[in-house]
Amino acid sequence: MLIVMNVGATQREIDGVVRVIESLGFRAHPMPGATRTAFENLPGVAEAVRVTKPYKLTSRDLRPEPTIVDVGGAKIGGGSLAIIAGPCAIESREQAFSVAEAVQRSGAQFFRGGAFKPRTSPYAFAGLGEEALKILADVRDKFGLRVVTEALDESTVDLVEKYADMIQIGSRNMQNFTLLRRAGRSRLPVFLKRGMAATLEEWLLAAEYVMAEGNYQIVLCERGVRTFAQHSRNTLDLAAVPAVRRISHLPVIVDAAHGTGRSYMVTPLARAGVAVAADGIMVEVHARPDEALSDAAQALTLDEYEQMVKQVRAIHEVIA
Amino acid sequence: MLIVMNVGATQREIDGVVRVIESLGFRAHPMPGATRTAFENLPGVAEAVRVTKPYKLTSRDLRPEPTIVDVGGAKIGGGSLAIIAGPCAIESREQAFSVAEAVQRSGAQFFRGGAFKPRTSPYAFAGLGEEALKILADVRDKFGLRVVTEALDESTVDLVEKYADMIQIGSRNMQNFTLLRRAGRSRLPVFLKRGMAATLEEWLLAAEYVMAEGNYQIVLCERGVRTFAQHSRNTLDLAAVPAVRRISHLPVIVDAAHGTGRSYMVTPLARAGVAVAADGIMVEVHARPDEALSDAAQALTLDEYEQMVKQVRAIHEVIA
Amino acid sequence: MLIVMNVGATQREIDGVVRVIESLGFRAHPMPGATRTAFENLPGVAEAVRVTKPYKLTSRDLRPEPTIVDVGGAKIGGGSLAIIAGPCAIESREQAFSVAEAVQRSGAQFFRGGAFKPRTSPYAFAGLGEEALKILADVRDKFGLRVVTEALDESTVDLVEKYADMIQIGSRNMQNFTLLRRAGRSRLPVFLKRGMAATLEEWLLAAEYVMAEGNYQIVLCERGVRTFAQHSRNTLDLAAVPAVRRISHLPVIVDAAHGTGRSYMVTPLARAGVAVAADGIMVEVHARPDEALSDAAQALTLDEYEQMVKQVRAIHEVIA
Amino acid sequence: MLIVMNVGATQREIDGVVRVIESLGFRAHPMPGATRTAFENLPGVAEAVRVTKPYKLTSRDLRPEPTIVDVGGAKIGGGSLAIIAGPCAIESREQAFSVAEAVQRSGAQFFRGGAFKPRTSPYAFAGLGEEALKILADVRDKFGLRVVTEALDESTVDLVEKYADMIQIGSRNMQNFTLLRRAGRSRLPVFLKRGMAATLEEWLLAAEYVMAEGNYQIVLCERGVRTFAQHSRNTLDLAAVPAVRRISHLPVIVDAAHGTGRSYMVTPLARAGVAVAADGIMVEVHARPDEALSDAAQALTLDEYEQMVKQVRAIHEVIA
Question: Among A143, B90, D123, D232, which is most buried by a count of CB atoms within 10 Å?
């Protein structure tokens, strides 16, 4: 039995653990930390267990207090509730404005909308590109909302930097290290979605790539993982929120749209995301979801969105 | 493209769908329902898609209004919030009473506690058996709580029927059809946990086994599924709650203890379970978790439990 | 970094590991083994890693040489190739005999066929029961094949003991501990399928339940696990074969029928099972698969079966 | 019940299916194909099932005969057995040559070795870059082996094109669409690994991205998916090989190194890969695995490699 103490464990805590060990009739053997290499192939070795964590800058060991991320003057983290809403993809100025108006009215501060869409099929609608970014910039000017939008590679980071307030890195790119490093050299904060099969450690190490380049303004986003379950598009792993909280100082947002993929589940899971103490939620909203060019099945109508915001605010007050 | 309508879809709804299809330039071909067999091996067949659902008694198609389950006079379902709390295993009268007192004080109506524990290892503590059932019966008499406890096979169902108010069927036994049929012939309501790799359909069909024997008093319990994630013992699949609600009339409870396996996650996930509109939650409580004989890592202390109850009640009011 | 040595590691092996550690500039701290309890809730503890394995009787530490299981005089394990073939369910004497004749002709020694079928739906064909067992006994007498068939509970074990040569415990019952204990008190060998979400440890502990009652004649069967993959019914985890081999002395069989659920995949995966050095394979065969009452989609025709047997025998010779 | 026929199903096949349907007492309703949009939100709709496949160029419907990929004059596909071997990362000329000599001696035609390594941690060894590519070019000249190496982004594709014979796209980049499009404009063939949570459809659509740009020379590589199983690094999904074969004309290789992550499993799973009828295997080889700078735990020694090659060649003959 190996007991790994926290990096900052006090002598008193260590003594407490030793006492329990000895009360069970065992002897305790203190052991200084060490780092990893490949031992498993040596003769006689049954298993090699890594006991130090590979992430550093993302860790509470390095920075105990929570990071508050500044997105064009609005904050994510530190006890406030961030609501990030908007259409999946920007389809037209009219479509974007109709949603932005509702988002502004709800008191939310962040607007999302895809300009560059990573689509599973090369034949699917891939976004309006720079034209969409211009619409997003207009949304910011007209409605006072901060704009979050996805970049797919180095050249789209250049464009996103020109028009938006926050760079989103999508699930499929969570381990696109070239992109992570480029985002690490940006002046904009980064919204980093969890990969669909990523462990917590891999996710934090992706953030570590960004931070290692000097950009410490990162928001993590849980958006569901891939499992055998077929009733939702992904399985939203809400336990990731307290788990991240325990080891990292970075804020965490729950994406209830991609995390479910079914519009009738979005409001309940958005409520659950706030109840689990995420720093905010991301949802998709569309004035006429049936006509959306992408991800229609997971968008809220304007009315549903308004109702949802009321409920999540009330839940946020309960747990504050 | 195949569009499957709900069983109760109106002609007006059908016409609406046809209109959308035709507005896209396609022709709509109405097709009466049919049932399944094995076609996939016939020459030329690419795929056979089942379009009827195999569950019947558990379905909203059969019974549109929600089932309210009566557990010794207390109700689960129908808008109330059921809190089921107690130790993982009954270890002694003192241990059970210390927890029961806190559960009663919190206003909860249901007490859980294992008498027969299904343990992964044959060498682990497997519960006190009938002695534990007697303690549970005393808890009911002294504290006015309804008692939920697990049965493992036909003979333990006999014993549980003698002492308790509700028969729990655990995850590992979700497809123990002999046990399900025996529970279907009981006068007690059944608390049916989802198997750790069960689809919604398999879970509902397990309930269907119970109902097919005549027992319609069933509460479903989401308790997490097995995934690659290592930060929690299981991955709590909260989307299962709205998904079940949509197709079945049976109440659903969220087990935040087994669903996480880490005590620091229990309260956030219990809150999330209520926020997602489950009919209640199940948690484990222990006066001194460090000394518990089983599942110590997921029990709340008495204080943590008291705090948690306040929060979930407040969230329940928000969404009511 | 913790290096766990095998139980039987020699001093020379330990010294070798220490040398590598020190060549990397670290100090090695030998540490006697200890057993587990719940430390993770103590203050300051980051993680508690169990370093002893919970299984004993199934382990190579206890019994280094491979177990050879005797099934009515025919052997499984020890270098031979066991072929277990037959229909999913026994439907009639004619159906069973037509398949048994082909199985006998192929030189295989084991016949499978379900009498009691655990079906996901209570409305599906559940087997002919004792009538099927009588047909199986006739297959044994007439064709000289050993009969493997599934028991679902204590009372069906009684019946299987009366008619068959080996008790199969299915995936859904891998943690039905009452059934495992009953099989542990049987004079018949046990064919133990892996649960669809079972870790290796859980699977070996299920075998440990049987052995703890005194029955050491167990054959493990890998039959696929549940994953997100949709192209096969289950994902056959062939790495489980060398993994089991490394830690346990029990023979392992690969079920290429349930492991794939698609007849066109059965032969390739049966070959792969033999190539990975399993002690044998299980397949389903039907004279007219299109008319089978259960699992039609995964049965081989008689011709396909004959071809498959030739190929797996040739592969077995390559790796012998 | 919906029966989807293959695109090329004959009238005779269709009539055969209709006959079976009618023999079961149902009526058959022929239905012309249609394409997909979002219907699930319309009132009354229970489910919308897509019945056309989104991949085109990768499909057997488009090209029934198998694609044979030309890698610098050596072929992959069409019945031959491709063996791709080499170290995980190129560490030095000496290391590369010592392995290349053994690879050449074994009769294999393809050499692998990482110059740019996508590492989970930003602090891990990330490859020697262009220096490694120069060593790989020397391996080609000196040993006559074709060189396969990974590119991470557009600029490393430029470099790989300069020195190597085939561009590898790794699991983490399977949906890096910018990279896929760049590879689609290359004159080199592409080695496309399956993402660790990718469905078959997503994998084929990734290949479709490459083909849509004009590059039809693609080899798919199954390298294991992420599951709950802990005994191997990934779960090698060998059923993917027949599944791909059935719907696509592209060759498929099995990576037994990453697919297992444990050196003692590599040879058995490489044999299984050939037995399942893959077009070849990829393995990692190192003269002194204990000293490898990356993925030491999954490399074969030179001797193990030589033995493995003999076995897989013999198995290949069995199934040819």
Answer: B90
Chain D residues whose CB is inside 8 A of the A196 CB are 197
CB-based contact C233:D245 (threshold 8 Å): no
Among A48-57, B19-28, B270-279, C82-91, the least confident range = B19-28
Q: Which two tokens stand for residue B88?
A: 């993982």
The C-alpha of A84 sits at a distance from chain D's nearest C-alpha, in angstroms, of 23
Quote the CA–CA distance of B198 and A16 in Å, as a whole number.
41
Q: Report d(CA A77, CA A80) in Å as an integer.
A: 6
DSSP B291: G
Which residue type does C58 have? Answer: T
Residue B308's Cα: distance from chain center in Å? 20
Find, in chain D, the residue whose alpha carbon is nearest to that of A117: D177
Question: Across all residues in chain C, what is the average pLDDT?
Answer: 91
ipTM score of complex: 0.88
> Residue C26's closest CA among D198, A81, A35, B62?
A35
For residue B4, name the pLDDT band (cuts at 50, 70, 90). low
CA–CA gap between residue C23 and residue C32 (Å, rounded): 23
Alpha-carbon separation of residue D19 from B37, B42, D12, D217 (angstroms) = 13, 11, 10, 42
- The span from the CA of C109 to the CA of D232, in Å, is 32
Q: Which residue has the tokens 């059809």?
A: B177
- Does residue C45 or residue D175 have the better pLDDT? D175
Nearest to A161 by CA among A130, A124, A192: A130
Tell whether the torsion through CA atoms of C296, C298, C304 and C305 is positive or negative. negative
- Closest residue of chain B to C288, computed from CA coordinates: B41
Backbone torsions φ then ψ of D115, nearest 5 degrees:
-105, -40
Instruction: Give the model's pLDDT for residue B49.
Output: 58
If 0-12 CB within 10 Å is exposed, 13-18 middle and 19+ buried, where does residue D28 land? Answer: middle
What is the per-residue pLDDT for C291? 76
Across A52-165, the runs of DSSP E, i.e. the strands, are: 69-71, 74-76, 82-86, 110-112, 146-150
Tokens of D190: 């592409």
Helices (DSSP H) in chain B: which residue ranges? 11-23, 93-105, 130-143, 154-163, 177-184, 200-212, 240-247, 263-275, 302-319
Distance from CA of C201 to the nearest CA of A (A): 14
Residue A185, number of CB atoms within 10 A of its CB: 12
User: Residue B31: is its pLDDT beyond 60?
Assistant: no
Q: Tell me, what's the pLDDT at B290?
A: 76
B39 φ/ψ angles, rounded to the nearest 5 degrees: -110, -15
Contact A3 C48 (CB under 8 A): yes
């010779």: which residue's tokens?
C317
Kindly determine whether residue A29 and residue C24, on different chains, have CB atoms separated by under 8 Å. no
Reported as a single tens digit per residue, the pLDDT across A184-214 is 999 999 999 999 999 999 999 999 999 999 9
- Of the candidates B273, B268, B267, B177, the one whose C-alpha atom is nearest the C-alpha of residue B223 is B273
B254: Cβ–Cβ under 8 A, 6 or more apart, which residues?
A: B221, B222, B223, B236, B238, B241, B269, B270, B272, B273, B274, B276, B278, B280, B281, B282
Directed axis angle between helix D130-143 and helix D154-163, to 10°? 30
The CA-based diameter of chain C, rounded to the nearest angstrom, is: 73
Alpha-carbon gap, residue B230 to A111, rounded angstroms: 33
Q: CB distance D122–A41 less than 8 Å? A: no
Burial class (CB in 10 A: 0-12, 13-18, 19+), B320: exposed
Our CA-based measurement puts residue D123 at a distance from the nearest CA of chain A, in whole angstroms, of 8
Comparing CA positions, the residue from B227, B233, B242 lying closest to residue A256 is B242
Q: Identify the H or E element spanning C219.
A: strand C218-222
Which residues, in sequence order, are CB contacts of D291 under 8 Å at separation 6+?
none
Q: Say what the pLDDT of residue C42 is.
A: 54
